[in-house]
Design goal:
single chain, about 230 residues, alpha/beta, 2 domains, four-stranded mixed β-sheet, two-stranded parallel sheet, about 55% helix, about 15% strand
């Protein structure tokens, strides 16, 4: 409760000071640049204590949240721990396979085909659309594989992709940084592809990937999947 009050008080104090600063600027529109700069510096000095107080309150709130999560994790039943571990391990395996397939497709598109200015323009403005196709049935044992595929592709939303220049022409290797909660994948691109990007993107560019999954299962003879 005290942390919540500190955050609320800091935000209210900052909002009131910003509003007063805006009203003063409207009233004194003909002030010289030197005087306006001095007022801006003084306004920043007045606002800094509230910003520091807000940061301290947020850090305290984060520590409390981490401690609460740790306590809840310790209270978890020991009977559920093996199941949770198996589910996490299975999810990591499926995610690694879907991410490997996606990175392989991107590397093939960039290195094994001629540079396409339209593709680079779409990559820079809209991102990349990656579709996965499956031949799984909703019957029998394949239902579990279908569910794994859906979760594995959905987890790709937690990955950030970066396009970076590469000097290696024989064996380019992508780089991966981060953890399972936040991954960054750096895709190397040949100089011919980097040349199609704007000058401010030659050192690296972040792009988005939208993944979709199409499944073509058994319809007329679905009972065969159970045998």
């Amino acid at each position: 409760d005290l942390t919540h009050l500190n955050i609320k008080a800091s935000i209210m104090c900052m909002a009131s000071k910003v509003q007063s600063f805006i009203s003063e600027n409207k009233e004194e529109s003909s002030v010289e640049p030197a005087e306006s700069l001095d007022k801006l510096c003084s306004w920043t000095d007045e606002l800094m204590p509230s910003i520091k107080k807000l940061r301290q309150a947020i850090q305290c709130l984060m520590k409390t949240a981490k401690l609460t999560y740790s306590i809840v994790s310790l209270k978890e039943s020991t009977k559920c721990l093996p199941l949770s571990q198996k589910v996490r391990h299975r999810r990591d395996i499926v995610f690694s396979q879907s991410l490997t397939s996606l990175v392989t497709g991107l590397m093939t598109r960039l290195w094994c085909r001629n540079p396409d200015s339209m593709f680079i323009h779409m990559l820079r403005t809209l991102g990349v659309l990656c579709h996965f196709e499956g031949l799984l049935s909703c019957y029998g044992d394949e239902m579990g594989a279908l569910e794994d595929m859906v979760v594995g592709i959905d987890d790709l939303r937690r990955v950030l992709f970066w396009l970076e220049p590469s000097s290696a022409s024989c064996n380019p290797q992508p780089r991966i940084e981060g953890s399972r909660l936040f991954l960054r994948v750096f895709i190397p691109a040949p100089p011919s592809v980097i040349a199609l990007l704007p000058a401010d993107c030659h050192n690296g560019y972040r792009f988005t990937v939208s993944s979709v999954f199409f499944n073509i299962g058994i319809n007329e003879q679905a009972t065969l999947a159970e045998k």
